[in-house]
Design goal:
The protein is an all-alpha fold. Helices cover 97% and strands 0% of the residues. It contains 1 helix and no strands. The termini are far apart. Keywords: Coiled coil.
């Protein structure tokens, strides 16, 4: 009987230790998840900022292309008018 009680107490102590270990592991995982989410947020903000910068640069380049095309068209018309004049 005494041996069964000792075995039961040992098993209970092992169970309590495992519960503590599980809680420590859950806390560590929670911390890792929190750190991951924070890093993900920073990464997403960085990607968003880079995309906005790229989109703005593309917009400026397209505007410059349109300006140059309009200038070329104007010059071509002027050249036609000058060359075609009697």
């Amino acid at each position: 009987m005494l041996r069964l009680r000792m075995n039961l107490q040992t098993t209970k102590d092992e169970c309590d230790a495992l519960k503590r270990d599980l809680q420590v592991a859950r806390t560590a995982i929670g911390q890792h998840v929190h750190e991951f989410c924070a890093a993900k947020h920073v990464w997403e903000a960085t990607v968003t900022a880079a995309k906005q910068k790229y989109d703005e640069e593309v917009w400026h380049l397209r505007a410059e292309i349109e300006r140059l095309q309009a200038r070329n068209t104007k010059l071509a018309l002027q050249k036609t008018c000058v060359c075609g004049a009697p």
